[in-house]
Write a structure and sequence with these properties.
Chain A: It is found in: Endomembrane system; Membrane. The complex is a heterodimer of chains A (504) and B (482). Chain A is mainly alpha-helical. Chain A is 74% helix and 3% strand. The chains are: A mainly alpha (504), B mainly alpha (482).
């Protein structure tokens, strides 16, 4: 079943890419081409299938510890490579979130530049590899999906982006591919230390092939740290993110921020903390410092932005800092703090899910604003609340969720992260709290600039969200509220992983 | 007396049985030549069909050799071991693709018949080089491979670029040939024999500086075939100036033989005292770095592919560095050669099918006009970068793993950094194809060439996905009689 969730979208992508030119209507960019909306409908339906499959997997998930619903077969046994997928309390929520964000992003209307066929092919392909990444239980397979996701986004930004899209796409590709090569070397380092040699994650976690200490273990740790850190991104590896986000089309940004950034933090937990826990514990404090720098720096820089999308991009740096802080606290080896550490870990995991949904919604909204107003500069807007109540309402909820208002998804996650981190690294967490204050200020200012005040003359004909936008964004908002009100549903799943992980 | 004669005769027959594919290539080449001399100009294309047939028969006689027995025949001067057999198959596959590309390219050339003879002999040179376990054998196959290469490169004798490329290739080749002959003579003097198995016992680390100089001279000659520093300079010029199908051939096929001979040669050198491993490591490092940096500024796609070919040699040399220290070294070398040769021939194949168009800017919008060709070129370039699941990825993975395993982690890190740099210039070709609007009409050559390019390109994907079969086949192979 899990395999189907990965390869159905990829197979559909191949079909979309190979459609005859007349059907994918990418010869003449005629906007009223009937095939465009039909293609979108088909792509949306296919894009929703992995979500249904994963919901089925959730229903069958019992959380007894270890990996469940495992599907495996040999692939390159001479090198110890296998095709292995499965779920546990960590990967299930992230895979679910991924499938959900993709289903929404694929259905979301966007300027296709007369090339719907390749666009939907790339989105479906990305969905398949992203879900695959969170489900894979083999480092080799993990890396294959990791790299494929980069290629997919590269073409999405380059061909459908705006502004200096090609430059941003290339910068994104070079940075993240550099990270992925560091990751590759680290994986090889880990692989060569296993006996018998294998890429099987469960087996490596059992073997713990690299005890802490020594240059070798540290180098492997560094490789992993750079690989995952670039993707997350943590300061100072974040510079690829703002241009990539600003120039990408709305749904691609939503996917990039909502899903792809999580690959980095997921890797920290799944690979680094699980396979080199002692080395991670050694470096937990510096990682915490980096996290806090990301939090405060990301928030401050976001505060200074006049460009709506750039602002949201920098809040992503800030929010991923929360996740990293939670992970640093969870991975530190401090005796007697197991409860706090489990709290930090569940918080960090929940933050990954919550940030995926929230930031996905915010980027989709900014895409809609761009489609209507042709600019991201917040100065150009104002008073939209009167003209577009639906747009305003959705943005306000998403922004409040992002700044951590109780009752919404972001609050539960941030509360747990900070509650856990305060017990382990009180000073760091104290400084990190500043980030929450700053993000509150900057989101309120953003809402005020765009939606309140007098309506500029040129926007008197501003159209509110269409029904597809309302439906897709509405489901995202419902989920954000749902997780905020009843977090236990997800927390129970995450706890089946987090509890045993910190040895509670 | 009669008895020994009889057994010698038996030996001769069985020895000839070991080189049937090579004999097929020789005979086929001669047949093609006679055909070209005999038939009128309008039938010259028939020579391509005969050449293709020759390659097919040679491949058919090679495949049974995969099941052994391994042997070192002709008094241990020539190997029919698994690496040599695989090298043969790689060379033959590439040659077949190049013949298919050449057929439409040379159709209007009234004297194209001999071309295929040269191509077959050049392939033979690469094959012999891959099997050489003797210094004299090495010299002969190097010269055969080089001499045919010069002529092939300059085959468009009226084109200045082609003639210039031929001259550059020849001058550098002449220089390194001299270095090869001196080195070989010196090695013979030090070791007392010319067979590699004999030299392994004959050469001792006490030979000191003399041995180092001799080995270095031979390595420089091999570096010429590989397109490695310091004898790499012909690569971009040949890629740019030679007839496009020849560029596909000369920038990849001879490397197969040269890499295998280099791997055999370093096995012979005494491991202690000489320090050939650091030497090859330095060559690998400079080759990949120089090739990448030079490629960054190319606006000519063929020159860019030429420089990229230099940098790819650098990655391949990682396997040589790891020889004997990592069991991954030989499998990764063979896999790399397969992945690299296929991708290189496919990339040049797309250029051939586009009638040799070479300005980077004229590739704008190609994805809309010729989606299949654009996809093929993209796949080959992504394979050069090493994006999974293409063949180049598994190649880089195993090369890096072998280097780390051999204690040369820094080389793997340098390879990774180089890979990142390489993205920039590969993307300079990929991006305009997909992100820009069509610049003008896109004339193509013929269905045959397009078919050959696309098929070779899809092999790059297949080899990547089916890496297991190959790695299993390469598992535990040896290069010299133990």
């Amino acid at each position: 079943m899990l395999t189907l969730a990965i390869f159905l979208p990829i197979a559909a992508a191949a079909v979309f890419a190979l459609l005859p030119r007349r059907l994918r209507s990418d010869v003449d960019p005629a906007r009223d081409d009937p095939w465009t909306s039909r293609l979108r409908l088909v792509a949306s339906v296919v894009g929703a299938v992995p979500l249904l499959i994963l919901l089925g997997a959730w229903a069958r998930f019992d959380g007894g510890g270890g990996f469940e619903l495992v599907e495996s077969s040999e692939w390159i046994p001479t090198l110890g490579v296998g095709y292995r997928v499965g779920i546990d309390g960590l990967s299930l929520p992230l895979a679910l979130m991924t499938a959900f964000v993709f289903a929404v992003a694929i259905a979301y209307p966007v300027d296709l530049r007369g090339r719907p066929g390749p666009y939907y092919a790339l989105m479906l392909f990305l969905e398949g590899v992203s879900v695959g990444l969170f489900l894979s239980l083999d480092l080799f397979l993990f890396f294959v999906f990791w790299d494929l996701s980069l290629v997919g986004i590269y073409f999405l930004i380059g061909a459908w982006g705006h502004g200096d899209a090609r430059r941003s796409a290339l910068k994104f590709f070079v940075y993240t591919f550099a990270g992925s090569l560091a990751l590759l070397l680290a994986i090889l380092g880990l692989y060569l230390a296993t006996e018998p040699r294998t890429f099987d994650m469960a087996e490596i976690i059992r073997q713990q092939p690299l005890p802490a200490g020594g240059v070798y273990a540290t180098l492997v740790f560094l490789g992993f740290f750079i690989g995952f850190g670039v993707k997350t991104p943590v300061v100072p590896f974040h510079t690829w993110l703002p241009p990539a986000h600003v120039d990408a089309p709305g749904p691609a940004s939503a996917v990039l921020a909502g899903v792809l950034l999580k690959m980095g933090t997921y890797g920290f937990v799944r690979v680094l903390m699980s396979m080199q826990p002692e080395t991670f514990a050694r470096f937990a404090f510096p990682i915490g410092v980096v996290a806090v720098v990301s939090i405060v720096y990301g928030a401050l820089v976001a505060m200074a932005q006049t460009n709506l999308k750039r602002l949201i991009a920098y809040t992503s740096v800030n929010h991923m800092g929360y996740v990293m802080l939670g992970l640093a606290a969870a991975g530190a080896s401090i005796a007697g703090q197991e409860d706090a550490q489990a709290l930090a870990l569940t918080g960090a995991t929940l933050e990954m899910v919550a940030h995926g949904l929230i930031t996905g919604a915010l980027f989709l909204v900014s895409g809609s604003i761009l489609a209507r107003g042709d600019t991201y500069e917040m100065d150009a807007y104002g008073g939209l609340a009167g003209r577009a109540p639906a747009l305003t309402g959705i943005t306000v909820v998403a922004a409040f969720a992002s700044l951590g208002l109780p009752g919404l998804a972001g609050f539960v996650a941030e509360f747990q992260v900070f509650a856990g981190a305060l017990a382990v690294y009180p000073w760091l967490a104290g400084i990190g709290l500043l980030g929450i204050v700053i993000t509150a200020a900057l989101f309120l200012r953003m809402l005020q600039q765009v939606f309140l005040g007098p309506l500029p003359e040129r926007w008197t004909e501003w159209p509110d969200l269409g029904w597809i936008e309302r439906l897709t964004l509405g489901t995202l908002i419902l989920l954000i509220i749902g997780i905020g009100v009843a977090p236990a549903l997800l927390l129970d799943v995450i706890d089946t992983f987090a509890g045993p992980f910190v040895g509670r | 007396m009669d008895d020994t004669m009889g057994s010698a005769g038996m030996d001769m027959a069985s020895m000839l049985g070991d080189v049937i594919p090579e004999l097929v290539l020789v005979v086929g080449g001669v047949v093609v030549l006679l055909y070209a001399l005999a038939v009128p100009r309008r039938l010259q294309s028939g020579a391509a069909v005969l050449a293709l047939l020759t390659v097919a028969v040679a491949a058919a006689t090679t495949i049974p050799m995969l099941d052994g027995p391994e042997a070192y025949t002709f008094a241990e001067t020539y190997a029919r071991d698994l690496p040599a057999v695989w090298a043969k198959l790689i060379v033959l596959a590439a040659t077949a693709a190049v013949i298919a590309l050449s057929l439409p390219w040379f159709r209007s050339d009234p004297r194209s018949g001999e071309y295929y003879t040269l191509l077959l002999f050049s392939a033979l040179g690469a094959v012999l080089l891959a099997g050489a376990t003797d210094l004299k054998q090495f010299v002969v196959s190097m010269l055969l491979s080089s001499a045919t290469g010069y002529v092939l490169t300059a085959y468009h004798r009226l084109s200045r670029a082609s003639a210039e490329a031929g001259i550059k290739y020849f001058l550098l080749g002449a220089l390194t040939s001299a270095s090869m002959l001196i080195g070989v003579a010196y090695l013979f003097g030090l070791g007392g024999t010319t067979t590699l198995p004999g030299l392994r016992t004959g050469l001792t680390s006490t030979s000191g500086p003399g041995l180092a100089v001799a080995a270095a001279l031979v390595v420089v000659a091999v570096a010429f075939k590989l397109g490695a520093v310091p004898a790499h300079a012909w690569m971009p010029d040949v890629a740019e100036g030679a007839p496009a199908p020849v560029a596909a051939f000369v920038t990849s096929v001879p490397k197969v033989g040269a890499f295998l001979f280099l791997a055999r040669l370093v096995l012979v050198l005494p491991p202690d005292g000489l320090g050939w491993r650091p030497l090859v490591a330095v060559i690998a490092a400079t080759t990949m770095t120089l090739g990448n940096l030079a490629a960054l500024w190319q606006d000519d796609v063929r020159r860019l592919l030429g420089w990229s070919s230099v940098s790819q040699t650098g990655y391949g040399l990682l396997a040589i560095v790891a020889v004997q220290r990592s069991e991954l070294a030989l499998p990764s070398l063979l896999y790399f050669l397969l992945a690299y040769v296929l991708a290189n021939v496919a990339a040049f194949g797309v250029v051939v099918q586009l009638r040799g168009r070479t300005d980077r800017l004229t590739y704008a919008g190609l994805a809309r006009a010729r989606p299949l060709l654009a996809a093929t070129l993209t796949i080959t370039l992504l394979s050069f970068i090493g994006v999974p699941p293409l063949a180049g990825f598994a190649a880089k993975l195993s090369l890096f793993a072998a280097a780390i395993d051999a204690g040369y982690g820094w080389l793997a890190v340098l390879g990774a950094i180089n890979t990142v740099v390489s993205i920039a210039y590969y993307a300079r070709v990929i991006a305009p194809m997909y992100f820009d609007d069509l610049a003008g009409p896109v004339p193509v050559l013929s269905r045959t060439a397009g078919f050959a390019a696309v098929i070779t390109g899809s092999l790059v994907v297949l080899v990547g996905v089916g890496a297991e079969l190959l790695f299993r086949a390469f598992d535990g192979i040896q290069l010299l009689p133990s």
